[in-house]
Amino acid sequence: MKFDDEPVPGYSLPILPGHVSPGRLERVLRAGKFAITSEIDPPDSADPAEVLKRAAIFDGYVDAINATDGSGANCHMSSVSVCSLLTRVGYATILQISCRDRNRIAIQGEILGGAAMGACNLLCLTGDGVQAGDHPQAKPVFDLDSMSLLQIARGMRDEQRFDSGRHITMPPRIFLGAAENPFVPPLDWRPHRLAKKVAAGAQFIQTQYCFDIDRLREFMLKVNDLGLLEGPDRVFILPGIGPLASARSARWIRANVPGVHIPDSVIARLEGAENQKEEGKQLCMDLLNEIREIPGVSGAHIMAYRQEHTVAEIIKATGVLEGRVPWYPGRDDPKELNPESSEALLS
Amino acid sequence: MYRTRRWVVRHSRVFETIYRRFEPVLVKLAPVLRRLGHERIEAPVRSVEKAVKGALFDCQMCGQCILSSTGMSCPMNCPKSLRNGPCGGVRANGHCEVKPDMMCVWVDAWEGSRRMQHGDRIQAVQLPVDHRLKGTSAWLRVVRQLDGTASSTAKSETTK
């Protein structure tokens, strides 16, 4: 999709009425298009080229790229720096902030900094516990929780003030997101908890990996009943999906990654397949096809950790973009190519 | 004690009633407490509060108690000190992501709140913790608030 008023790549779009951010993701969602987001695993390196290389894999297939913030409590390049590198060449990014590592002073500074660097979307997360990562001896901060983080970010944007009440001269124009996990207990509270997040400021939701369509359907029905999918303060829901590499890795994820619910039937399907990796990809496509049919779903968030190259294939095979080619550097003008994309490296 | 605090959650409605009866008593005591001087009685009240709430709820003395909004399950026992509901890491059996042997504080809170008359308070968004109040008496704060002399620096909206 190309917007008529799209200026120089990487520059902000004009903020339309009813919109809060100058970003492309909000435009796509509010235009009612099925949006695709994916995420970059930030490098364990100070090399900016690595970030650009990882982003180029998604060229033409995603509407925004999440830059994870110490995902799984492991140390990587920071989310705000990954976003900064990406927005420089024009990518739409989703800045992630987890409450695990910073207090409210650092977090609010980061929100301003991220917005100044062109990150138009902010995903507010609690964060995995430090026990899950490579520095279990670290101090867990959790000064805020995802809910109070959302509320503070909204206050910065809409009321132009820090949590302390101090005035902000130029507010961050950010589209606010949060995570939800409809697949773990307390199941009957999850839709209400989402309502609480919306009340705190959430405008889009990316969920944890979905491998259980029935639970997602039930969740979406309740969310709809709560009236969260209509009106000017409606929330856009992007269920998370991803390809499983094998039955063994599915079992490992289930046991070791906090909050991932994988039903036995999924593992059995992978086990019964001749080529488990292919089957994992097929399963992901099947899930995507089912998810797009669920009323109220606005898009999908594809998490293909260490299988990023499969994202393009999954989207092509399912046709969820309906012929739309999300903007990427060089789509309209070869001079704007991401210098680390394969096209640029070949020429 | 883990067992006691889970027992309390199973009887959250009883404790809700006790708290509701306790509040007018505090209000009646307010002039007396004021005459004694809040600062002078802070230490003894704090000790009693810590002993009682510690035994019943595993209270961590955050100084801004919200038990009546959390199904009588103290949110400060959550390893991530979440004040607004469970994280996404809750295990399939309802146990904590960080401490696998412990039931998620918020799974308990949800159960407890559903037994309470005003359990829907769990849906209210709670402000972040004011760390200056840690270790102080929440009871006395309630007294001061109800008495109309709430400290102007305390910005949490919570009661009890």
Automatic annotation (TrEMBL), chain A:
Alphabetical UniProt keywords: FAD, Flavoprotein, Oxidoreductase
Q: Where is this region: Disordered?
A: 328-347
Cited Gene3D superfamilies: 3.20.20.220
Show the SUPFAM superfamilies listed in the entry.
FAD-linked oxidoreductase (SSF51730)
Give one Pfam family, short name only: MTHFR
Listed pathway(s): Amino-acid biosynthesis; L-methionine biosynthesis via de novo pathway; One-carbon metabolism; tetrahydrofolate interconversion
A single GO molecular function term of this UniProt record: methylenetetrahydrofolate reductase [NAD(P)H] activity
The protein's annotated catalytic reaction(s) are: (6S)-5-methyl-5,6,7,8-tetrahydrofolate + NAD(+) = (6R)-5,10-methylene-5,6,7,8-tetrahydrofolate + NADH + H(+)
Q: Which cofactor does it need?
A: FAD
The family note in this entry says: Belongs to the methylenetetrahydrofolate reductase family.
Q: What is this protein called?
A: Methylenetetrahydrofolate reductase
- What species does this protein belong to? Halomonas pelophila
TrEMBL record, chain B:
Identify the residues that the record assigns to the Methylene-tetrahydrofolate reductase C-terminal-like domain, covering every copy: 43-131
Q: What is this protein called?
A: Methylenetetrahydrofolate reductase C-terminal domain-containing protein
Q: Which InterPro entries match?
A: DUF5981
Note the Pfam families from the entry: DUF5981 (PF12225)
Q: Which domain of life is it from?
A: Bacteria
